[in-house]
Amino acid sequence: MKRLVIAVAVLALAGCGGEAVVPEGQGAHGHGASSAAPPVPAASARFNDADVTFVQMMVDHLQLGISLSQVGLAKATGKEAKDLAGAIDVTQREELTMLKSWLKLWGKPEGDGANLHAAHGGQPLLDDKVINETKEKSGPEFDALFLNLMTGHQGAGVEMALDEKKDGMNPETTAYADRVVKTRQGQIEQMLKIISGP
């Protein structure tokens, strides 16, 4: 599994240097998060089906990422893994609030994330069962599992965002997709470095 997840992450990283996942001064609990990224404007009313599907899928994706990051905050033993969990938790909570507001503006439901993933060729790498199973691990074993799962999860986010950049029309949504690609690739790169060790 480790090799598979890393391979997916490497493909997602191809051709891009990415960004650091933990902004300077932001620790495991998200201190300094307010300065991590500029506020994203409310989405305009001009959108297509690709925009709606992307936002609905990302709502489910972000909720799962938040659940895993919460377990990481509680159980990670390595400082880098715990800091990553904290940064991801803060960022994805902000994004989740924003995306839900866009769907409300558009008059669209949040949708059924699992069915949306299935309709687009697969299931998410994470679900509640997988996340609960991570709680049975501890120490370095937990850290390695957490980082591998989060690497694959963020790689899936990159794939969804690339589709939105290609097919979407809402300017705020496509700008958000671009941000997802850059930030998640940075996170993947950082996690791969931690997994591979010094």
TrEMBL record:
<dbReference type="InterPro" id="IPR005183">
    <property type="entry name" value="DUF305_CopM-like"/>
</dbReference>
<feature type="domain" description="DUF305">
    <location>
        <begin position="51"/>
        <end position="193"/>
    </location>
</feature>
<dbReference type="Pfam" id="PF03713">
    <property type="entry name" value="DUF305"/>
</dbReference>
<dbReference type="InterPro" id="IPR012347">
    <property type="entry name" value="Ferritin-like"/>
</dbReference>
<protein>
    <recommendedName>
        <fullName>DUF305 domain-containing protein</fullName>
    </recommendedName>
</protein>
